[in-house]
Amino acid sequence: MLTKDLGRTFKDTDFADKAIDHMTVPAAQASAFAAPKVGPDTFGSDHFPIFTVWTP
């Protein structure tokens, strides 16, 4: 799970302090992905976007 240690992804700080949306990849391929980041804006959602970069 790439986002295991990501931290809060929910906009409401009273709701959760851990990621509630996750990205998973096969363990053998995890090293091909950059560390995931939480986007700076919710764009009207109650969740922040999560992104990473895959290098094949």
Could you characterize the architecture of this molecule?
It is built from no helices and two strands. The chain has 56 residues and is low in regular secondary structure. The protein is elongated. The protein starts with 36 loop residues before the first strand and ends in a 5-residue tail after the last strand.
Compose a concise summary of this entry:
By secondary structure, the chain is low in regular secondary structure.
The rough form would be described as: elongated
Order of helices and strands: EE
Task: Classify the beta-strand content into a percent band.
Answer: 5-15%
Identify low-pLDDT runs. Answer: none
- What Rg is obtained from the alpha carbons, in whole angstroms? 12 Å
Question: In terms of topology, how is this protein built?
Answer:
Layout: E1 37-38, E2 50-51
Keywords:
two-stranded antiparallel ribbon, 56 residues
